[in-house]
Each structure stands twice: as C-alpha cells, then as structure tokens.
Amino acid sequence: MNTNTDGSQTNECDIIERTLDWINDGYGAAWAIVVEAWGSSPCPTGSLLAINDSVAFIGSVSGGCVEGEVVTQALDLIRKDASKLLDFGIADEDAWRVGLACGGRLRVFVTCISDQWRRVLVELGEAGHHKRPAALMFPLEGGNPDLVVPGKKVSGAIVAVPELSKQLSDCIESDVSRVAVLPDGNRLFVRVFNPPLRLLIVGAVHIAQALTAIARQADYEVIVIDPRESWATTERFPSIAFDRRWPSEALQELLPDRRTAIVSLSHDPKLDDSALVGALKSDAFYIGALGSHRTHAKRLKRLARQGLDSEALERIHGPVGLDIGATTPSEIAVSIMAEVVSARRGIVRRKGGVRGNEIER
Question: Taking the domains of the chain in order of start, what are their residue ranges?
C-alpha cells in the first residue's frame, strides 16, 4: 500500500486502475517506481507514483520529499515517450531542495506508459482482480516490461531467461521487490504484486472492532467470522466482510494459506476451539487466541484431547499479542497487530503475551 502526500492510503489496484483510466481517456501517463532505497528514505523499494500529463497523480515514492521533482521529470518523459533513472540523496547538491537532507537515498525509475506498458498493466489488473500473485519486470537501462503470473503463461523476452526463474520465485515467495541481475550483467527490477495479506478474526467483540481498523490500515484484507448475527453487524463493523458460519466450516471454505493470519477473540470455547482446530490444519503464518495464561493452559488441554500434538499447539500465540502492557481494547488490538507483523517479518516473539490480554469473563 502507498501513502499519498496527503496521508491517505492508496493500494496498488487503485494505481493500476487509475492509470488505465487516464490512458483510455486520452491522457499521457507515466509511472515512477522506487527501485532502490538506503538509509532514512521514507518509502520502501517498490513504492509507486502514477502521473498524467495534466499533472494529476496518485501514490507516492517518498511521502512528499521528492514528488515535485519526480512529477516534473515524468511530464518531460511523457512528452519524449522515454524512461529515466533518477537518483536522490545526501550527495546531491539539491538534497535540501528535494527533502532528503536527513540522510536517505532513493533511486527512482520513471517511465512513460507506452503501448507495451499498457498491455502489461491490463494483465496486471486482471491478476489483481482474481487475487493471483504476479511479478512485473523491466530493465533499469530502459526497455519493454514483462509480466509473470504463476500458473498463467505470459510471453516476453525477459521471461525467457532461465536464470531468472529462481530469483522470480524468491521474490514472489518472500513478497520482496528488488533488483535482479541477468547473466550478462544487465539489471532489471522485479516488482511483486501479491494478493493482499488476510486477517481472519473469530469473534465480533469489542477488541475486534479496533483490530479491523488497524489491520486495514496495514493493508490486510479482513474477514470477521461469527455465527452470532447480533454481534456481527454492519453498524458495529462498517465496510467489513462477515462470514456468519461456524468457524470450522468458515475456515474450511476460506482456505487460510501462508499469507493468512487467524486471531480468535470470542473468549467462548465453543467458538475459539472450533476456530483453532481449523486454523492448525492450515498454513496460516500466525494463529493467536485471546485469554489469560490460565485460560490458555485449559485451552491447550482441551485441544490435546482432540488429538492435536504439542508441535501443533506450539503454533498458537496465547495470550495473544506482544507484551506492551496493553489494557484497553484498542491497546490490545495494537499489541495483536504488532505481533502479527512481527510473525510476518520472521521476528520471534518473547514468551509471556500481553498482560492486559489476561482477561477473564
């Protein structure tokens, strides 16, 4: 997800759709993509900014620091039907002017959206619509882009290079956009477009209301699972998707994968146990459950009686959340989301959970 210069959030699908709309309406357009970043640069590698020739733009490559210069360059490249690598950093005499005097460095690739780029963006938009992973590739020295959608053949000269296969797989698997090096020494950028991460929340409780908002800001697709219709209402959870089936049935249909986190918050063993049994059968990268140490110990005994071994039960984060001393529902939601992010980034959490999550009902 990109943060616009006004602080609002824009996702990748919005940028692709807006770019194609501009082109269909007769505007010239360009994309700016952060291909390398060092130090305190404010936007990560892969950040996107789309610009049209009437100076409308969407997305960001620096949170506002270098946007003005990038837009100026993009307008020139649209006129020339060309592309260019831009470098910004503390070594530049214009560092103060563009806003990176704090020590960050950025390398931004800016390209006019040619016919070949438009065709690739159409394919990319289709992949996003169907929630398929995809990798957009283009030479940093300039040239036509290619697109790889696993399970769907997309032709292109770059894709035909056998040595790229492992690098592409690694990028998509790790969800990391980066520069790849070809056998001839030429470099190309691989921009990964994976389906959104998912957070499945079992129990439409007060903590869940805060957690859904935080998770969406972190660019997670959120689904609240709760068969109790008086709890799972649009009034309590505006614009959130519901699954009102029993947790075990819902998880069987939702097919949690390695890009899915599951958090059970109902504090009702009938719901929580059903959810956890289903979650432990999946490849979810995170599984958490609300409750005190005592409640969690009882939970583990119940699940063990259902045949789950100690290795499986170790996957459950309980009490859920990082130990930040949280006490209110909103603070607990912050601690849970922090632990989900920590698990996603491969950071091992300290045992003990959140003291404030040790609630009894």
Answer: 2-113, 116-193, 197-357
Q: At 324, phi and psi to the nearest 5?
A: -115, 10
Integer angstrom CA distances of residue 170 from 48, 89, 215, 257: 21, 29, 26, 17
Top-level class of domain 197-357: alpha beta
pLDDT in tens, 53-84: 999 999 999 867 788 999 999 999 999 999 99
Distance CA 111, CA 14 (A): 18
- pTM for the complete prediction? 0.79
CA–CA dist 104, 334 (Å, integer): 28
Helix/strand/coil (H/E/C) assignment for every residue in 55-122? CCEEECCCCCCCHHHHHHHHHHHHHHCCEEEEEECCCCCCHHHHCCCCCCEEEEEEEECCHHHHHHHH
Q: Which residues are paired to 150 by β-bridges?
A: none
Q: Pick out the chain residues at pLDDT < 50.
A: 1-9, 92, 95-96, 101, 350-361
